[in-house]
Amino acid sequence: xxxxxxxxxxxxxxxDAELKKAIGxxxxxxGASQSxxxxxxNNSGFIxxxxxxxxxxxxxxxxxxxxxxxxxxLKRSLGL
Length: 80
Known about the structure:
By secondary structure, the chain is mainly α. Helices cover 75% and strands 0% of the residues. It contains six helices and no strands. The longest helix is centred in the first third of the chain and has 15 residues, at 16-30. The termini are close together. The relative contact order is 0.21.
């Protein structure tokens, strides 16, 4: 999945509840444990700030850890 600035803008525009849900979906796609998933969701503000400061290539490298099928599923579920 190719990252666009529009995708980044849509993710950072999510409200807290939507962002926590998205983080949970990403954690599931990456195979995180339930405790890792909860920890990430509880740090949604930090994650939003991190997304705002990551380059497209850094995001691309992060998402390369997700299978193409899961990446497309995430893209659809997040409305990207």
